[in-house]
């Protein structure tokens, strides 16, 4: 596995995006357990993109305007929904004193949806991973699985670090209603901006 792949993957993973924003918001809402749950969800959400790239579905999204637009607008709608829920305090930043299994499962499912409904992720896998697979590779699928697993592991670790940091300062933040109000606006604005960015995305 090349250093170039590891470095490029790390830069992609640590760059603030929907998954990072969702993980931070979940950590501020439910603490460390929610942070880990969000990290799991966002990481699992990579699997469909990986499989799509392997079976050629990403190529369909890349060439079919209708398929790409359908998935894109579902993603936009979901991000705007998350922005609205955050503002209404029943979404990512409605603070809960305790997290039970059902709450954590919901965090995981939402994290999965965040990535599934982003068609750019599938196209990213289609364009990104093949660059690191030699043309004479005897087992390209196995190689792609190896690279994908590494990317997913890196995603999980980085997101957990982000989330645990947010969870650590959670008690200081939630005790100040004015700070929470501003954070809700910031996170809602972030989700809305990411939705707008996705809306203008081209294949």
Characterize the structure shown.
It is a single chain. This protein has 203 residues and is mostly helical. It has one domain. Helix content is 79%, strand content 0%. The protein has eleven helices and no strands. It has helices spanning 3-14, 18-30, 32-44, 46-55, 57-63, 65-87, 101-116, 119-128, 140-168, 170-174, 177-199. Helix 1 packs parallel to helix 9 (140-168) and helix 3 packs antiparallel against helix 9. It is globular and about 60 Å long.
Would you report the number of β strands? Answer: 0
For the record, the count of structural domains works out to: 1
Helicity, as a percent range: over 70%
Unreliable spans: none
- What is the string of helix and strand elements? HHHHHHHHHHH
The number of helical segments is 11
| Overall average pLDDT | 77
Radius of gyration: 17 Å
**What does the main sheet amount to?**
none
Residues in β-strands, percent: under 5%
- Give the CA-CA distance, first to last residue: 29 Å
Globally, the shape reads globular
Secondary-structure-derived class: mainly alpha
Task: Give short descriptive properties of this protein.
11 helices, mainly alpha, globular, 203 residues
């Amino acid at each position: 596995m090349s250093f170039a792949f590891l470095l490029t993957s790390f830069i992609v993973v640590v760059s603030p995006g929907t998954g990072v924003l969702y993980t931070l918001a979940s950590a501020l809402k439910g603490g460390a357990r929610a942070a880990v749950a969000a990290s799991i969800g966002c990481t699992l959400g990579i699997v469909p993109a990986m499989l799509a790239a392997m079976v050629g579905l990403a190529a369909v999204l890349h060439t079919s305007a209708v398929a790409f637009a359908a998935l894109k607008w579902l993603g936009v709608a979901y991000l705007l929904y998350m922005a609205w829920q955050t503002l209404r305090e029943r979404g990512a930043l409605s603070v809960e004193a305790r997290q039970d299994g059902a709450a954590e499962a919901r965090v995981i499912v939402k994290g999965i949806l965040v990535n599934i409904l982003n068609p750019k992720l599938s196209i990213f896998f289609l364009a990104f991973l093949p660059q690191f697979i030699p043309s004479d590779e005897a087992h390209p699928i196995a190689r792609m699985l190896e690279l994908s697993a590494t990317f997913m592991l890196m995603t999980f670790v980085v997101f957990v670090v982000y989330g645990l940091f947010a969870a650590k300062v959670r008690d200081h933040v939630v005790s100040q209603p004015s700070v929470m109000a501003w954070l809700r606006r910031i996170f809602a604005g972030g989700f809305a901006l990411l939705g707008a960015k996705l809306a203008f995305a081209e294949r």
